[in-house]
Amino acid sequence: MMMGPGSGPGATMRGFTRDRSVRDHRLRQGTGRRVVGYGRPFRSDIGLFLVLTIVVAALGVATPLLLGRIIDDGVIPEDRQVVIVLGVVVAVLAVLEAGLTVITRFYGARIGEGLILNLRTEVFAHVLRQPIAFFTRAQTGALVNRLNTDVIGAQTAFTSILSGLVSNVVSLVLILGALLTMSWQITVLALLLLPVFLIPAQRMGQRLSALTRQQMTLNAELATRMTERFNVAGALLVRLFGRPAQEDLEYAERARGVRDAGVRIAVNRVIFLAGLGLVAALATALVYGMGGLMAVAGQLSVGTLVAMAALLGRMYGPLTALSNVRVDIMTALVSFERIFEVLDLEPLVREAAEPVDLPDGPVDVELEGVSFAYPGADQVSIASLESRPELETGAEGADGAGVLHDVTVRIGAGQLVALVGPSGAGKSTLTTMVSRLYDPTEGAVRIGGVDLRTATFASLSRTIGVVTQEAHMFNDTIRANLLYAAPAATTEEIERALRAAQVWSLVERLPDGLDTVVGDRGHRLSGGEKQRLAIARLLLKSPAVVLLDEATAHLDSESEAAVQRALDEALAGRTSIVIAHRLSTVREADQILVLDGGRIVQSGTHEELLAQGGLYRTLHDTQFRTERQTPTC
Ligand SMILES: Nc1ncnc2c1ncn2[C@@H]1O[C@H](COP(=O)(O)OP(=O)(O)OP(=O)(O)O)[C@@H](O)[C@H]1O
Ligand SMILES: [Mg+2]
After folding, report:
1. 582 closest CA partner among 528, 529, 530, 541
2. What are the domain boundaries of the chain?
3. Whose CA is nearest to atom 31 of ligand 1?
4. pLDDT bucket at 367, cuts 50 / 70 / 90
């Protein structure tokens, strides 16, 4: 049995979300129009594709009719010439149909893959620009999985509906028209067979979709689990705290679920296909039985009989496909809608309509009356992607609470400000205001007199350099990681930066030198090495403002001295905010800010603050790591 593009049982069973919940899903207004918008760039392709699809469908109906004519006008009257001519015509049509099918598929693929490309790049660009808070909330595995499945789901549905709907409707209309003109009695009888097949087929379709959906969910869980466990940080956690045997058990249980669903899907699919074949065979028997009697009685020609049998065989495929078309369309729209949900997330931090560049060269940094609260889940995340949505209501209050309160600081160009305070005081949060990872809830942050909300992203990223405690690296070579900050840097410049950051001797010793791969998240380097590499990265970029979170981990005195020299280099001549954990940093600072509960409670130089006593004195006595010489004060 032949079927039009996208009309076979394979296509019918492919929709993974096909089930009642999808069919009864209420779409948001405007989704349809928006989807059509995505087809717009492919207008001419789609037009051509539809025309070709119709032609191919028509050719599929023409062939059985011609076969009937060969018998009636050629074989029975024993007219050799008619047989030959019509035979050749059928052959030509077959070649034409094959050729056109290839071209149709080409356009179909171009539209579908083009759509994927557009959706993918749009989603990637959009998600990349989400605030950091979005990523602290979303489960990466689930997010990636979901974006991939939905983009492909949207594409599949878009093209299969486009081709399936059109070619099936056209085929069906032509076939039914032809059948009715040949013998309405047989046609009606054959149609009576339909419900016998269609009703169980629909039910089977629903069962299959429920199974497929279940398998998808389990598969997604497996994938998420793997992404979480199969990176250095996750694997370390399992090794140090976990019970590998328990992990194995849990994984195997889900994997078994996938297997069971897979087996049931296969069995159901085969039953479905066998049923389809059976009904087609019954219909053929009916046509030959009834039609044969009519032919004997002289009411029907033999050729018509053969043509009808062939046409009937081609009718059931489109019919089944069309019986599910509503669900197909809904599935597509739901996929689109879930993508739109991501695309509609407003990035909290946006570039102004007419942004200005921050001034070059040494700049001052000013925070004026800055208050800040981390955004709540409703502002930054997709409800359906929260890993544990049921817990969210409880967490909301914590997010809403202010982290910074009325912070005012002026840092002159080239000055060094040390930020100290107890854990959770808001020190890291304060630096995110300056790098504009977040915008303050109240007040303003200005660099070189320019409010960051009006600055260009490009100049902001040029001006600001950050070294965090974790000093993240991509799993790539040292060279690539450094070039990420300064794509145009030459090998000499890289070497100079590495020397200044006191890591050149290490890189030199590595067998692959600059081309050594640092490992997932840079785990193949020690904490101190990683931080010095991050400093080298910063030096290459040469920003005017430096934000630095000093390592709290204790380094041996040699690495300590190396980091110190690297820092001296990194901070020289730049406006710097350093979250200080070391006495030497606070001693050198032009200004020390003591942060507690999101407020600046003390400020001044080391000597002034020591004389004042208060929180600084306590921190000084308990928290600062003393290097070699003990503080004298
Ligand atoms: N992404 C976030 N979403 C919600 N709350 C956050 C987020 N990051 C930090 N907080 C909260 O904000 C407060 C200040 O955190 P912050 O990281 O600024 O502290 P810190 O002074 O840098 O502490 P530490 O010295 O331990 O690094 C904390 O109560 C913390 O729980
Ligand atoms: Mg911190």
Report:
1. 528
2. 10-343, 365-373+403-622
3. 424
4. very high
pTM: 0.71
In terms of CATH, what superfamily is 365-373+403-622? Answer: P-loop containing nucleotide triphosphate hydrolases (3.40.50.300)
CA of 426 to the centre of ligand 1 (A): 6
Nearest 5°: phi and psi at 402? -70, 145
**What is 109-129 written as a DSSP string?**
HHHHHHHHHHHHHHHHHHHHT
Residues paired with residue 410 on neighbouring β-strands, in sequence order: 366
CB-ligand 1 contact for 345 (6 Å cutoff) = no
Q: What is the DSSP letter of 369?
A: E
Task: Tell me what pLDDT residue 401 has.
Answer: 77
CATH fold, domain 10-343, is ABC transporter transmembrane region fold (1.20.1560)
Q: Calculate the dihedral angle through the C-alpha atoms of 19, 20, 22, 23, rounding to the nearest 10 degrees.
A: 110
Distance CA 62, CA 109 (A): 26
301-310 in b/e burial notation, b at 16+ Cβ within 10 A? bebbbbbbbb
Residues in the chain: 633
Mutate to test the pocket of ligand 1, among 371, 396, 427 (most ligand atoms within 8 A of CB): 427
Written in H, E and C, the secondary structure of 498-560 is HHHCCCHHHHHHCCCHHHCECCHHHCCCCHHHHHHHHHHHHHHHCCCEEEEECCCCCCCHHHH
Q: Which ligand is nearest to the CA of 420?
A: 1
